[in-house]
Design goal:
The protein is α+β, with helices and mostly antiparallel strands and about 100 residues long. The chain has one domain. Helices cover about 25% and strands about 30% of the residues. It has two helices and five strands, in the order ββββααβ. Strands 4-3-2-1-5 form a five-stranded antiparallel sheet.
Length: about 100
């Protein structure tokens, strides 16, 4: 399991953390960022950024250096900073194996 948010105050007695399940980035024709996080019970929560907020987030993500902090960690930190979920990010990034792409 990769990085996740450890909730300061659990949302329910058994919900303790969320991990990134899906991230969709769309620049054109209108900017949008869709993030779905999955809690430890397998339940989804969806957060959307649209318009100017999405454009600013897309621009920031496009120029970030992910050599220290992973993409998913940055996404989770953004959800915390924007007040969507309380907690701290913990864990280490999952390392996917390289997949050959045929041309």
């Amino acid at each position: 399991m990769g990085e996740k948010i450890r909730l300061d105050t659990p949302a329910a007695l058994t919900v303790t953390d969320y991990s990134v399940g899906l991230t969709t980035l769309r620049r054109l024709p209108s900017p949008s960022v869709r993030i779905i996080v999955v809690n430890n019970l397998g339940q989804d929560a969806e957060f959307n950024y649209e318009g100017e907020a999405a454009r600013q987030l897309l621009n920031k993500l496009n120029t970030m250096d992910f050599s220290v902090d992973s993409f998913e960690k940055r996404i989770l930190e953004r959800l915390i900073a924007d007040g969507h979920l309380p907690g701290t990010v913990e864990g280490t990034p999952d390392r996917a194996e390289a997949v050959a792409v045929e041309k």
